[in-house]
Each structure stands twice: as structure tokens, then as C-alpha cells.
């Protein structure tokens, strides 16, 4: 199989390494828009900027060729950019008349540009707008890039309504320490991937304020309820939220110190501004951008998401970390459940 990974950040690089290392006969190309970054990766046989100290296996090539040229002859296209570049990348693939399966790795809802109305879209909705002819899907689940690059066991979910996409993802990545599950519930998988990042910011805040393990377990339990409520209202199956892209990725991202979203919460608790926290990461923290669209989307379907809404208030600088906690604790008593 010939596969190309578009976007040479931490996750695209790790997954390209994983696919090339463990699948004999695969030709894996890691594509970056920045020619200088490609030169550096070629020289170092690693990605010093985004995933240092992880050596590229022999089967991994890097490329900065024009995208329309780079995708020729590929059997599978993986989009590994942040959510903010998904639309433009899909437009470029549509213009290049790509006919093979395409899957994205980004986790979030599209941000609504300032001054524009409407709700932020899920990745598959963006694709339906700009490249409806593509057979497409998402690869998601609890997966820190560094652990995948090191070859540590990781389970992922290949989500698509198209059997051909689920099959291509399994063929490319179900190998060695990577194990894939298939799921047709693209809505559930994408809602899980977006909302867990917002909850990870909240969990970082909770831990940064030393609120305790009881508080963190409570936050994650109610965060899972919020995620499920929103997903079901948008058409997802409730059981998807008990799976890898729901509970699984929530647990990982909210409690694992490799998470950038969790780190944002920890830094806000220390008193850093949002700009300072984001600048210090050197990588994207999607929850910062998705939080607003998640809450807007929930409001549009009449779903209450108190934790996510509080994260938005905090990110916008309208409340302090301490006030965020007080606000959640002071809510009226309610019956447990969704
Ligand atoms: N890092 C991780 O462990 C995981 C990340 N993800 C998701 O994958 C997505 C990417 O994350 P990371 O790789 O960690 O981000 P990163 O911040 O490490 O790298 C982002 C990369 O995207 C590139 N990029 C931005 N716009 C682009 C465009 N228009 N065309 C081509 N490349 C472009 C940047 O140059 C950079 O190399 C995010 O949505 C993230 O939530 C999902 C699972 C695991
Ligand atoms: O999605 C991830 C793990 O599954 C990575 O989370 P962060 O973006 O918070 O690092």
C-alpha cells in the first residue's frame, strides 16, 4: 500500500513512523508544506521540531512536493493537520481529483470565524460541504504521539460510513503495537474527540488547583455525561461514548501529562494568561478553539453543558479559575443521569 500523511506535526509523524516501521511493503510518505522542515527531516531522519528523538524507519519518505503531485499514486490519504486546516486541505484534495480513501486525525469542531454566524461543523460535515464525493472518515482514540512513535501498545478507532475507508485504515495501521477497531458512528467518534479536549482543559485546571482526586473523578464522570448528551442530540449512538474515542480518550487526555489540553488547564491554574499558556506549548491544543463551537453547537440543539460552558468563560478571561470551580459547585441539585 502507498499512503501519504499530510502534515508533519507530532501526530502525523508518529503515525507515519508506526505504519512504516511495522508494515513490510508499505510505502509511507510524510508530507509537510514547509520545504525547509522537510530538508531538516531528511537530514536528521527524524522530526526535530515536532517529535524529537524518534528515528524514522527506512520505509518512511518525506516530501514537500506540490500537494496535487504528492497524492498521485497513493492508496490512502491521511490528513494530520490541526482542525483549522482541514477545510483547505480537503479543498486541495478535491481539486487534485483524489479518488482514494481519505481520513483525518484532527479532533475538534471547526471554529466559526469572528463576525460570522452559524455553528461550527464536525470534521465530516466540513468534508460533506467541500468534498462530498470523497470516501472519507476519521482515525481517532486514545493515542499520545510519543507513545505511538516509541512503539507502545495503542488502540485506535477507524470511523467511517464507508466500508472502503474503514478497510483501508485497518490495512494501513492494524499492525504490531497498533490495534484498530472499526465503527460506523462517525458523529459519536468526532464528538468524543472534540469534547474530551475541552474536558482535559477542565481536568488540568482541577489538578492545578489541587482540588483532589475525588473532584477529578467527579469532573470526568459529569464530563462524559455532557459529551454523551451532546453526541446523542447530534445523532450519535450512546454506546460510542463508552468506547475508545469517548471514555478512552477522555481518560487519557484528562489524566495524562503528555496532553497539551490538560497542560493548558494546569498553566491557567498557575496564573498564566491563555496566550502565555498556548505560546508555551509549541503544538496545537484543539480544546482552546473547539470549546466555543462545542458550546454553541450544544445550545443550538438545546443541550446543557455546564463544564464546557465554564471552560469557555475561563478561556475568554471572564472568570478566574477559582470562580470557575465555585460556579460548578453552586449548581442546583439534580437527579443523576444524562
Ligand atoms: N499529538 C497527539 O498526540 C495527537 C494529536 N491529535 C490531533 O491531531 C491534530 C494534529 O495534532 P499534532 O500533530 O499533535 O499538532 P502539532 O501542533 O504537533 O502539529 C501540527 C502540524 O500541522 C501543520 N499544519 C498546519 N496547517 C497546515 C496546513 N494547512 N497544511 C499542512 N500542514 C499544516 C503544522 O505545520 C504542524 O506541523 C490535532 O487536531 C490533534 O488534536 C490526535 C491524536 C493524538
Ligand atoms: O488526542 C490526544 C490523545 O489521544 C492528544 O491530546 P492533546 O492534544 O491534549 O495532547
Automatic annotation (TrEMBL):
Q: Which reaction does it catalyse?
A: sn-glycerol 3-phosphate + NADP(+) = dihydroxyacetone phosphate + NADPH + H(+); sn-glycerol 3-phosphate + NAD(+) = dihydroxyacetone phosphate + NADH + H(+)
Q: What class of enzyme is it?
A: oxidoreductase
Domain (Glycerol-3-phosphate dehydrogenase NAD-dependent C-terminal) spans 185-326
Does the record carry Nucleotide-binding as a key word?
Answer: yes
Instruction: Name one molecular function that GO assigns to this entry.
Output: glycerol-3-phosphate dehydrogenase (NADP+) activity
- A Gene Ontology BP annotation from the UniProt entry: glycerol-3-phosphate catabolic process
| Record EC number | 1.1.1.94
Q: Which residues bind sn-glycerol 3-phosphate?
A: 107, 141, 143, 196, 249, 259-261
Q: Where does NADPH bind?
A: 11, 33, 50, 107, 145, 260, 284, 286
GO CC: one term? cytosol
Q: Which NCBIfam families match?
A: PRK00094.1-2, PRK00094.1-4
Q: In which family does this protein belong, per the annotation? A: Belongs to the NAD-dependent glycerol-3-phosphate dehydrogenase family.
Q: This chain belongs to which protein, by name?
A: Glycerol-3-phosphate dehydrogenase [NAD(P)+]
* Organism (species): Comamonas aquatica DA1877
Amino acid at each position: 500500500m502507498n499512503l501519504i500523511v499530510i502534515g508533519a506535526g507530532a501526530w502525523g509523524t508518529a503515525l507515519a513512523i508506526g505504519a512504516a516501521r511495522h508494515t513490510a511493503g508499505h510505502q509511507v510518505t510524510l508530507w509537510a508544506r514547509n520545504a525547509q522542515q522537510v530538508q531538516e527531516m531528511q537530514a536528521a531522519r527524524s522530526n526535530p521540531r515536532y517529535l524529537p528523538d524518534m528515528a524514522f524507519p527506512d520505509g518512511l519518505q518525506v516530501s514537500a512536493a506540490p500537494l496535487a503531485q504528492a497524492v498521485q499514486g497513493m492508496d490512502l490519504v491521511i490528513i494530520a493537520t490541526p482542525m483549522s486546516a482541514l477545510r483547505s486541505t480537503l479543498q486541495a484534495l478535491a481539486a487534485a481529483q483524489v479518488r482514494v480513501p481519505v481520513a483525518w486525525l484532527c479532533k475538534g469542531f471547526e471554529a466559526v470565524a469572528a463576525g460570522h454566524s452559524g455553528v461550527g461543523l464536525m470534521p465530516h460535515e466540513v468534508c460533506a460541504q467541500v468534498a462530498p464525493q470523497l470516501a472519507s472518515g476519521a482515525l481517532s482514540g486514545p493515542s499520545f504521539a510519543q507513545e505511538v512513535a516509541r512503539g507502545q501498545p495503542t488502540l485506535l478507532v477507524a470511523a467511517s460510513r464507508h466500508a472502503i475507508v474503514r478497510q483501508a485504515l485497518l490495512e494501513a495501521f492494524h499492525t504490531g503495537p497498533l490495534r484498530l477497531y472499526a465503527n460506523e458512528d462517525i458523529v459519536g467518534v468526532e464528538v468524543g474527540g472534540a469534547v474530551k479536549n475541552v474536558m482535559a482543559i477542565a481536568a488540568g485546571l482541577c489538578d492545578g488547583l489541587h482540588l483532589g482526586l475525588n473532584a477529578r473523578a467527579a469532573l470526568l464522570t459529569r464530563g462524559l455525561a455532557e459529551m454523551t448528551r451532546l453526541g446523542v442530540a447530534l445523532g450519535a449512538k450512546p454506546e460510542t461514548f463508552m468506547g475508545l474515542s469517548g471514555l478512552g480518550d477522555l481518560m487519557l487526555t484528562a489524566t495524562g501529562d503528555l496532553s497539551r489540553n490538560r497542560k493548558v488547564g494546569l498553566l491557567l491554574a498557575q496564573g498564566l494568561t491563555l496566550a502565555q499558556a498556548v505560546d508555551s506549548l509549541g503544538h496545537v491544543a484543539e480544546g482552546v478553539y473547539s470549546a466555543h463551537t462545542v458550546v454553541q453547537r450544544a445550545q443550538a440543539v438545546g443541550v446543557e453543558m455546564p463544564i464546557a460552558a465554564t471552560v469557555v468563560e475561563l478561556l475568554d478571561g471572564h472568570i478566574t479559575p477559582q470562580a470557575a470551580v465555585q460556579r460548578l459547585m453552586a449548581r442546583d441539585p439534580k437527579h443523576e443521569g444524562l
